[in-house]
Every structure is written in structure tokens, then in C-alpha cells.
């Protein structure tokens, strides 16, 4: 089975993805990790990014200048679309390559932060699993781990689907608020025995 995993920033989605690998033996395809690899020094996207956006968006070592790109993308939606037009085809190719590494009968979980927003994923998947939590929890988690200000985190959240939109797209929802890591793992273990999966 091909399962899409998504959730808002700070929802705990990556932790759930790792639990699915550890507890269920699922093959993980992490689209964020693919995107980061494409924009590291020597990454396949970097020549195209430099050509489209200029040297100011490339660091001295040849990686994507993330702060500069983040600022531009929030200020100018057309710049965000241009970056997506470069990255998405490359991410799609690598995603399929990694999915094909799964053993026969092994579930593949695609960790896709913007699964609902993209509109490109649903037809590729058998199920969608959403990790959900309160927006105040998202804010606290992201501010704590990233050092971003509340306004910056809210701006990121505003670019994402709402909780209601994500839940409406879900075949299963894992509510991750106020849980210890052990409790979250118990929730994942319960999902693994669900008829859905």
C-alpha cells in the first residue's frame, strides 16, 4: 500500500513517520528530505535556482540561501510558484525511485507536508493519514525548536491547509496533543492493526 502522511508544521508528523518505520517496518519516502538534498551544495536543483533567482539566493558553498528564499516566497507568491516549478518535478522523480526500493508487500509511507495543498497526491495513494494537533500546540513546538517568532510561525501556518481541510482529506487521523512519546507510539501501534492499513 502507498500511504500519504501529512500534518501541519509542528504536528509531530516526522515522529509518526519514524514510528511507522520502527513499529510497522514501512518504507519511508520523506519529500522534505528529498527537497533538502536537491538544494544542498551540488544538489540537482541548484543550477536551475541560480539561473532563475540569481546569485543572491545561493550561499557561498553552493546551497540554497533559505532565509532569503523564505522571505521572497512569502512576499511574492509568483516566486514561490517558480521555485515549486523547479523542485516538484525533481522531487517527484526521486520520490518514485525511492518508493520502488520497497520490498514486495512492504507498505510505503510518503511523508508530504503539503499533501492536501498540492492537489497532486491523492490519486497516487491508497490512504491518507493526518497527524493533527491544536494550533496553539503547533506554535509552541515550532517556536521552541526553531527559534522563530510567533508571527513567523503563523505566517508559515497561513500558507498551509487548515486543520479542517486536512482532516477532511484523511482516511485516518492521529491526534497528537498532550501525548508522551510512548503514548504517541501506542497510537501508531493501534493504527497498524486497523483494517485501514
Features:
197 residues; alpha/beta; Rossmann fold; 5 strands; 12% strand
Describe this structure in words.
With 197 residues, the protein is of the alpha/beta class. The chain has a single domain (2-192), classed as Rossmann fold. It contains ten helices and five strands, in the order E-H-E-H-H-H-H-E-H-E-H-H-H-E-H. The chain has a five-stranded parallel sheet with strand order 2-3-1-4-5, with helices on both faces. Helix 1 packs across helix 10, helix 2 (31-38) crosses helix 5 and helix 4 (66-75) crosses helix 5. The longest helix is centred in the middle third of the chain and has 23 residues, at 77-99. The termini are close together. The model has no long low-confidence stretch (mean pLDDT 94).
Question: Average pLDDT value?
Answer: 94
SS class: alpha/beta
Radius of gyration: 17 Å
Question: Order of SSEs, N→C?
Answer: EHEHHHHEHEHHHEH
Helix segment count? 10
Reconstruct the topology from this structure.
Elements: E1 2-7, H1 13-24, E2 27-30, H2 31-38, H3 46-53, H4 66-75, H5 77-99, E3 108-111, H6 115-118, E4 127-132, H7 135-146, H8 150-158, H9 163-168, E5 172-175, H10 181-192
Parallel strand pairs: 1-3, 1-4, 2-3, 4-5
Helix pairs in contact: 1-10, 2-5, 4-5
In short:
This protein is of the alpha/beta class. 53% of the residues lie in helices and 12% in strands.
Amino acid at each position: 500500500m502507498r500511504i500519504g502522511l501529512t500534518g501541519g508544521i509542528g504536528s509531530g508528523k516526522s515522529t509518526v513517520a519514524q514510528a511507522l518505520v520502527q513499529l510497522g517496518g514501512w518504507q519511508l519516502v520523506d519529500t522534505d528530505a528529498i527537497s533538502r538534498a536537491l538544494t544542498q551544495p551540488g544538489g540537482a536543483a541548484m543550477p536551475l535556482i541560480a539561473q532563475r533567482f540569481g546569485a543572491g539566493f545561493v550561499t557561498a558553498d553552493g546551497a540554497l540561501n533559505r532565509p532569503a528564499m523564505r522571505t521572497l516566497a512569502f512576499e511574492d507568491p509568483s516566486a514561490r510558484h517558480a521555485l515549486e516549478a523547479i523542485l516538484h518535478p525533481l522531487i517527484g522523480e526521486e520520490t518514485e525511485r525511492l518508493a520502488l526500493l520497497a520490498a514486495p508487500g512492504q507498505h510505503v509511507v510518503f511523508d508530504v507536508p503539503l499533501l492536501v495543498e498540492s492537489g497532486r497526491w491523492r490519486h497516487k495513494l491508497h490512504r491518507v493519514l493526518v497527524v493533527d494537533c491544536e494550533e496553539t500546540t503547533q506554535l509552541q513546538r515550532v517556536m521552541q525548536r526553531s527559534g522563530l517568532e510567533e508571527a513567523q510561525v503563523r505566517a508559515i501556518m497561513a500558507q498551509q491547509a487548515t486543520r479542517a481541510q486536512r482532516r477532511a482529506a484523511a482516511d485516518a487521523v492521529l491526534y497528537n496533543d498532550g501525548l508522551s512519546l510512548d503514548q504517541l507510539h501506542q497510537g501508531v501501534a493501534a493504527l497498524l492493526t486497523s483494517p485501514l492499513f
